[in-house]
Amino acid sequence: MSQSSQFNQEKNLRGKLPDEITSFWQQGLFHSFSGMNAVSIHYAQFIQPQEQLPTIVIVPGRGESYLKYQELTFDLYQQGYNIFILDHRGQGLSGRLLANLNKGYVDKFQHYVDDFHYFIENIVTHHCSAKPYLLAHSMGATIATRFMQDSPNAIAAAVISSPMLGFNSGLLPTSIAKKIIATKLTLNSLISKTPWYFFGQKDYSTVSFSKNKLTHSKPRYQLFIDLYKKNNVIQLGGVTTHWLAQSIVAQNDILANLAQLKTPILLLQAGRDSVVCQQAQNDFCQQLHELQPQSCPKGIPSRIDGAFHELFFEIDDYRNSALTQTMTWFKQHKTASAFS
What we know:
The chain is an alpha/beta fold. The protein contains nine helices and eight strands.
């Protein structure tokens, strides 16, 4: 039996999540902790009945809730892993930071990292007999990478999917785009204490499948739309200028401190990703591989041609490839060592 056949397939998602996944999800444990500045951070955990099995921590992207990750959590659990996943501050079920709950905002990007550090050190490690693995997507990959720089011995191995290492500014040169962000941020601070949306950003609204740039999978996209319609508390709109500025700070910190990344990292690149910058991912892999040859094999991302941004919500061919590579990477980096 091929490894891909061990993962859930689109045909099982017609109309609703299969009963098996729904039943599995209801057996999870759902809690929260107090993050930086007393913001409530919600998380879910799924612990195997057998002790001393490995652990994967899933780190979602911007605007996502762990509720969206039921199918992926189910698949990874079936592979024999304990699973932990959290909602970042300002999104999902976690505490929001502004009066307008739709605005994508964070005071400092480092607060995401500090929340995650607490999550790993005080919650995840209580259930681990060895260092956990990280599976991080987009903004979550930026958070995870910054965490691994701050805590270079905490993680056994990581897979970062469509990481937000740079923004896709379209036809606009990156340098000019950054100047626009800085100028609008300065103007915002002079005129108002309320963070403004960046140009073109707005409150939550659904995007038709034909116009979406996240996935080619219609059933998986429809599940996502239905979930957010049913649970409007997890809806999140576009980003503020302040959020963009803070994210650029984090991206610069990653590149400035590549030598601190000791964790073996595999970067999965979506071939038709228009959300984040692919060149930034290429540069990251080339430079990191030179410093840490165990990361980014051959010094390049593992590219899944044709795929949109959300590899783990894509059509089966792309998703199976992403999952198979993830499982292979983790199994190549087995560890029996305790936390150091």
